[in-house]
Amino acid sequence: MILLLSVHYSRTSDLERPDLLTTIPAVPIESYRDGFGNWCNRLTAPAGEFCVSTDTVIRDAGLPDEKDTTAEQHTVERLPGEVLTFLLASRYCETDILSDFAWQQFGQEPLGWARVQAVCDFVHDRIRFGYEFSRATRTAVETMKERVGVCRDFTHLAITLCRCLNIPARYCTGYVSDIGQPPPYAPMDFAAWMEVYLGGRWWVFDPRNNDVRLGRILIAKGRDAADVPLTHSFGQHELVDFNVWIDRVDDNPIQ
After folding, report:
1. Residues of the signal sequence (predicted)?
2. How are strands ordered across the β-sheet holding 30-33?
């Protein structure tokens, strides 16, 4: 198995303790960085019940995602070479099929931040969220047609539309908390969102939630979900239990 469950290197300095991968039963683990800089753990799982987990405390400023509505959109010839791969089609993002639609739908929107936000608004309003709609093989085109999905489907569709509009976009996976949100709270899960390249840097956009979120913790990023599966198995396996939690630690706990 290959597992991408460790906090991204950009946040490791915020960890109170290492978020080491542990297994029951214990097995040797080999770690390495993939081509996108993500930290990967490689192991051979024994037959029978096998549990993997990570746990840590991370310092977070508790601020919403950064925003700059004046961030400019670069013309393709002015983009750095390292971001060009995030303009191309990928496993779940069929830019060749959705290109004409993207330009018809968003071609009159102002360049830059406003155009990306228009894409997020469209995806958020068009797609109905539900865990019962989860399907590992659903692509952006299928999401457009079926109009249902989970956060990865929202993200793949928004990424594809942005790439069609010559805006580099990449897929991110990690934790998004319910801190600051009104109850009731849905069961916690890993989340997917995107980053787009505007004004010389990458910015977070979240087409599934499309609102202010606190405590967003990045695990991995790539072209789409095919690059950053949380777990990848090279043999038959069955997931029998799955738990994700993000709890706020009180700064001044009552003794």
Report:
1. none
2. 30-33, 39-42, 2-3, 231-232
Q: Nearest CA to 154 among 166, 176, 168, 171? A: 171
pLDDT digits (tens, 9 = 90+) for 116-173: 999 999 999 999 999 999 999 999 999 999 999 999 999 999 999 999 999 999 999 9
Euclidean distance between the first and the last CA atom of the chain, given in angstroms as a whole number: 42
pLDDT at position 251 is: 61
The pair of structure tokens assigned to 126 is 């068009």
CB contact burial 210-241 (16+ within 10 A = b; e otherwise): beebbbbbbbbbbbbbebbebeeeeeeeeeee
* Cα 57 → chain centroid: 20
Q: What is the pLDDT of residues 85-100, one digit of tens each?
A: 999 999 999 999 999 9
- Rounded CA-CA distance 151/127 in Å is 10
Residue 52 to residues 4, 25, 84, 225: CA-CA distances in angstroms? Answer: 11, 9, 35, 20
pLDDT at residue 160, rounded to an integer: 98
Q: Nearest-CA neighbor of 151 among 116, 202, 194?
A: 194
pLDDT at residue 90, rounded to an integer: 98
Structure pTM?
Answer: 0.94
Q: Which domains does the chain have, with CATH numbers?
A: 76-228 (3.10.620.30)
